[in-house]
Design brief:
Blueprint lengths: L1 H141 L7 H23 L4 H97 L6 E2 L5 E2 L2 H4 L12
Antiparallel strand pairs: 1-2
Length: about 300
């Protein structure tokens, strides 16, 4: 009887041991499955963080490219501004040269007008002299003073009559020496006066053209100055906008760096919370036992160095 009881108790003990071992195996399996599920969730979180990090790096590169293009545009605008300033200086020098030429032409015109007035005055003096000579001849021919001696009177009358006749014939004759000489001198003076008047008219016309050109150049300079002022204002506006964009980009980069630091902190916290015994696959499918090596594949340089 005692032997039977011992065998029954031994069989019961074996059943209990088998039940405990099965339960332990099930608990271990459930615990391993839970760990695997947790690691899968953490791996998904890691992939999401890596995508966010790549997007932040891409935005940083785009911001750097935009800033470089703005700097190139600003340098091109500075070169254009220097070119326009050089053109303005050239136009001012040309205007000064034209003003100097106009002044010299005006002085030359005044001198030639003065010479023409002097020639006209000499012609008037000669004409008055001829009129006085004719009056003297007529007065001498008609003078009959009774108190003079008869011989002197007769000699004088003969001489005056002869001279009168000669002068009369010479004056009445179109081909006479006096008339021809007076006509030739008169014609020469008239030709000289006409030539000088024509020259003065041409020079006045040239001066008017130069003055019109000078006026047009002044207008062009004023237009160019207004254009340059508008360009300078536009450059200042573009520079202000570029500075504002640069400040905004700097703020965005700082914000992205803070986000990157937060993401790295989240990655490190997720590393600390992961179990080291369970192997994890990297992006290439290789199992990594050390969790610190898992994130070494995604280390990047800071955005501040871009």
């Amino acid at each position: 009887m005692s032997t039977v009881n011992f065998r029954e108790s031994e069989a019961g003990t074996q059943d209990k041991r088998g039940f405990s071992l099965t339960k332990a195996v099930e608990d271990v399996s459930q615990h391993g499955f839970a760990q695997i599920e947790s690691l899968k969730e953490k791996q998904k979180t890691l992939i999401s963080l890596q995508a966010t990090l790549s997007d932040v790096e891409r935005k940083g590169e785009m911001a750097e490219q935009g800033l470089r293009s703005k700097v190139r545009e600003f340098l091109m605008l500075e070169g254009e501004m220097e070119h326009l300033e050089h053109q303005t200086k050239v136009l001012r020098d040309r205007s000064a040269a034209i003003s100097k030429e106009n002044t010299e032409l005006q002085i030359s015109i005044n001198e030639k007008e003065e010479n023409a007035r002097m020639a006209l005055a000499r012609f008037n003096t000669y004409r008055n002299k001829m009129d006085g000579h004719r009056a003297a001849v007529l007065h001498a021919a008609n003078q009959t003073e009774a108190h003079k001696e008869l011989e002197e009177k007769r000699a004088l009358v003969r001489m005056l009559t002869q001279k009168k006749e000669e002068l009369k014939e010479d004056l009445e004759n179109p081909n006479g020496n006096t008339v021809q000489m007076a006509k030739s001198e008169n014609d020469a003076l008239k030709k000289e006066i006409a030539a000088r008047r024509e020259t003065i008219a041409k020079e006045r016309e040239q001066v008017q053209k130069e003055f019109a050109t000078h006026t047009q150049i002044k207008k062009d300079i004023e237009i160019q100055n207004r254009r340059y002022e508008a360009i300078v204002k536009r450059l200042h506006c573009q520079l202000s906008r570029a500075q504002a964009v640069h400040r905004q980009m700097s703020e965005d980069v700082d914000h992205m760096e803070r986000q990157l630091a937060e993401l790295k902190g989240q990655l490190e916290s997720s590393q600390d919370s992961a179990e080291p015994q369970v192997p994890v696959q990297d992006a290439s499918g290789v199992f990594i036992k050390d969790k610190t090596k898992l994130f070494s594949h995604y280390e990047t340089r800071p955005l501040a160095d871009i």
